[in-house]
Structures are given as C-alpha cells and as structure tokens.
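URGENT: need a sanity check before tomorrow's submission.

F., can you look over the THIF-type NAD/FAD binding fold domain-containing protein record below? I want to be sure the sequence and structure line up before it goes out.
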Amino acid sequence: MTMTYQLNPFKFRALHQGLILLGSPHSAVTLPYHPRLEFLLHQREVSAADLALLTDQERAVLVREHVFIDWTSTNESLVDRQLGFFSLCGDGEAEQLYQDRLAGARVAVLGVGGLGSQVAYILATAGVGELVLCDYDVVERSNLNRQILYTEDSLGQLKVDAAQQALSRIAPQVKVSVRNTQLLDRDTVAELVRGCDVVVRAVDQPFGIAFEIDEACRSLGIPHIGGGFVETVCTAGPFCTPESVPLNASLGGKDFTAASYYKGPVLGPLAFWLASYVTSDIIRYLTRVAPPQLLDRAVLLDWLTGRMFVQDLRLPQTV
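Structure tokens as predicted:
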C-alpha cells in the first residue's frame, strides 16, 4: 500500500538562489531546484503523482528532514503547534509518541507561587496527564505581577484551590489534585511525591527545604528540578537524578544560614524566563526527545547585566 503524506506546515521551506531550503536558513538542508519539486513550496498535500516524480534520494531526504508527515494539523487541538514542534525533533520517533509520554506523566509541583504557578500552567497546556500541586499560602495582590494562574478574583483563596480552578478552565483534560499543606521535612515530601515521574522544587520555605526534597526524591528514585531568585539574579536548575551530586554537597549546603526575615524581590519577566527554562527540561525528560540541559548544573541570569553563567555541580564548590 502506498504511504500517504502531508507536507509538514511547520517545516520551513524556501527557494533561494536555485536551491530549496529545508529548515531554518542557518542550518538548512538543500535540494537543487527543479520544476517537479515546485509542490514543496505551494501545496499542502503530497499527491501520488508528486511522489512518483521524486528520486529515491530526494524522497529519503524529505522523510528524514521531516518535510513529509503522516498526520494532519488542526487548529482544534490544544497541542497542535506542539505536535508540529515535535515533528521537527528526534530521530525516527513519531511526534505523537512524545505527546503520549506527556499525557502519561504525573508531575508534582511543590509550591504554586512565582515559579510553580507558571510551571503548572505550561505543563497543563503541554498536555501532561496529571499534576499534583502543593502549597499552604493564600493569594495576595502582590502575587499578581508574576503568578499567572491568579487574578483579583482569587485574592484570599488558597493558592492550590485557585490554581486548580484556573487549570480546569484552561486544560480540562488534565487531572489536578491538590494538597494544602506546608512541607517540613523529607518524610512529608516523600508522602506527597510518591508515584510521580518528576518533582518541581518551587517552594522556598522553610529555608533548606530543597535539601529535604532532594533526599526524599533520591530515596524514591524520582528526578527533580527547581530554581529561584536572589536579588537581581535568578537560577534555573539543577535537574537532579538519584545519581546526581546531592544538593547538600553543592554551594552552601546545609551549613548555609540566611537571615530570618527576607522578602524576595521578583521582576515579572524573570519569573517567566525561569519557568520556561525549568519546564523545558521537564518536557525534554518526559518525552525523551532530548536530555535535560540542566542535569547536574544550574544556569544563572543576572538581569541587570544580562550576563548568564553556568554552575557545574559536579565540580568542587567555593563560596
């Protein structure tokens, strides 16, 4: 039976100086232009007649470069553009497989504030099957410059309840369970995250809770990732696995003592940047389309200078 193909609407194609560019111009694969290849520039579907005119080499290139796909894009699907993105990734695995892996995943988001609320939003709209949200705080007006799930109508509500309601409107296909509780130690963390595929560290109180999360996840064999803010610098990562360097062996560790009263300043755009960076690694891990970029390392961004630098947690740390 002859394979039926669609032209991938998400694959960039252009004619330039006698060459057909397949992909972003800076890294495009090219085919010499010939009138029989005109359909690559102007059609949506690939006809049997078009296929018959291709050489075996041309056909192999078009399949390998994801110009031909075997599904139809539709604006009715929440994840249509994401499937299009996945159609350009990977090596031989179908984009629907990546999406199915997300749909089968269970992710715990510990803290649904500046980082966690946005991570939950991105994961829900990406099609993750189940979210477990944990927080003990209520929504305040000062949250609204960066915590995307909340509005003026949410003021005074428990964050987990307001987040659950917002996500049910945005992505009703996602199962969202909530826990209104404060995480205090590795035992309370372990009870909550057991059975999850990934854990998001988006809680900063009590001080040092990240180390408890690390120990709990390590004992259960669950990877985790987080980030945070200190003054004008925000930190994405690290992505930790049971084989990673323990967090308490990284910079500061459990011997680090902060002032008892500290209000974290946050610029809205930094929170969006951080959530996007963290969630990208979660999607990489869950889909297996690519390895996490923050594995055993953190990326720091100083907003004032625009400087970004990488901290490798596998190397000896100094203060």
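My own read: The domain at 104-312 is CATH 3.40.50.720 (Rossmann fold). The chain has a mean pLDDT of 93. If you see anything odd, call me.
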